[in-house]
Write a structure and sequence with these properties.
There is one protein chain. With about 325 residues, the chain is of the alpha/beta class. The protein has a single domain (about 35-275), classed as TIM Barrel (Alpha-Beta Barrel). About 50% of the residues lie in helices and about 15% in strands. It contains 13 helices and eight strands. Strands 1-2-3-4-5-6-7-8 form an eight-stranded parallel beta barrel, surrounded by seven helices. Helix 1 packs antiparallel against helix 11 (about 280-285), helix 4 (about 70-85) packs parallel to helix 5 (about 105-125) and helix 5 crosses helix 6 (about 140-150). It is globular. About 40% of the residues are buried. The structure holds flavin-adenine dinucleotide.
């Protein structure tokens, strides 16, 4: 499995395939995990989830932003989503990635973009979550959070349990609304636990700590072992429902999402949308290669004829040949 994981993480970072994918609509099964390519479709998906008592955090997909025009375009799109959420009285807030707003171009440029977004959201009493990316962007993202916190309190972030430093970070940011995750990127041993057991153990430890000491905890996982553990833990420690929520990604474990909401837990679905779906989709395949059946189904039911299709096809063929060799 680690080889597959590395393979898809490698694909997620391929800029050529990323820009090829942008030219096409949602392909290869991405439509199952991406809510739409525009705001209208996305609001419709949010409203459907809201009708089941599920709130949403909305992410305008985008990676490899190295030009100011692209970062500005992303900012405008996020401002438009905020407006649309407000106008449609949808139960939703925003998740965003600093690199999409120019962190790789210039720190202050990125900070100003975020300020504009947080300010607009603040007018509507809307929360903004700063998603966490790879280790190289971790400290600058926390620095941006610190800067924004001087003026605003409608902002929070993510703690990635695979990092050794996560324990210190969660203590420092205990008065923030925090999303706690295992971590999605490939990180070196120098900074991060590599073993799933270690990551899972640290994940539970951080969740428990923040539930007991922190402001509001978003437990973002598809792992039913963790979810069941949290259910028991909050019961044992009398932690009220309004102190935490469960989060999952759009399209994943839909029945469990509905079940948790119907059991009375706060539930929030992470709703990604936009044309730039490729890197996000590849990271989801990296986490759970079983999702490959999404790709396979699409390849065999529709003629995709895209570079991405060819790449995934070559990969599947490679796997099949590999299997045959072993037989
Ligand atoms: C809402 C949300 C926001 C996120 N934000 C970030 C972020 O900002 N930065 C970041 O680095 N990462 C983020 N992530 C990704 C996260 O770090 C993990 O990579 C990702 O969630 C996979 O780990 P997991 O906890 O879901 O469970 P895993 O460790 O992938 O799975 C554990 C077990 O759960 C079960 N399981 C998992 N998925 C399924 C499924 N689809 N169907 C059936 N059983 C399943 C299986 O038994 C599996 O063995 C986010 C994840 C979510 C859900």
């Amino acid at each position: 499995m680690p080889i597959l994981k590395d393979f898809f993480i490698g694909l997620s970072q391929n800029q050529l395939l990323n820009s090829a994918a942008k030219k096409y609509g949602l392909k290869l099964g991405a439509q199952n995990v991406v809510a739409g390519t525009n705001i209208e479709e996305t609001i419709k998906s949010i409203k459907e989830l809201n009708a089941h008592g599920i709130s949403c955090t909305v992410d305008n997909l985008g990676e490899f932003v190295y030009k100011e025009e692209e970062a500005t375009e992303a900012k405008e799109q996020i401002l438009a989503v905020i407006e649309a959420i407000h106008e449609n009285k949808a139960d939703a807030h925003i998740s965003l990635k600093p690199t999409q707003l120019g962190l790789d171009i210039d720190y202050n440029f990125c900070l100003n973009n975020l300020k504009e977004i947080v300010d607009k959201a603040n007018q509507y009493n809307m929360f903004i979550n700063i998603d966490m990316e790879d280790y190289g962007h971790l400290q600058p993202s926390f620095d941006i959070l610190d800067e924004l916190s001087k003026e605003y309190n409608n902002v929070g972030t993510v703690i990635q349990a695979y990092f050794y430093r996560a324990e210190k970070d969660i203590e420092k940011y205990k008065d923030y609304r925090l999303r706690i995750v295992k971590g999605a990127y490939k990180e070196p041993e120098e900074y991060a636990y590599q073993d799933k057991k270690d990551i899972d153990a640290n994940y539970i430890k951080l969740i428990e700590w923040h539930l007991l000491n922190g402001k509001f905890t978003s437990i973002a996982t598809h792992d039913h072992h963790v979810i069941n553990h949290v259910k028991q833990f909050v019961k044992k420690h009398n932690i009220p429902n309004d102190k935490f929520e469960f989060q999952m990604l759009y399209g994943f474990r839909k029945e469990l999402q509905l079940q948790l909401a119907s059991e009375g837990y706060n539930f929030c679905t992470y709703v990604p949308f936009g044309k730039d779906w490729y890197g996000y989709f590849m990271r989801r395949l990296a986490e759970r290669p079983q999702n490959l059946n999404l790709v396979a189904k699409q390849m065999f039911t529709k003629k995709t004829n895209t570079m991405i299709g060819v790449a995934a096809g070559a990969f599947l063929l490679g796997r099949m040949c590999g299997k045959n060799r072993h037989k």
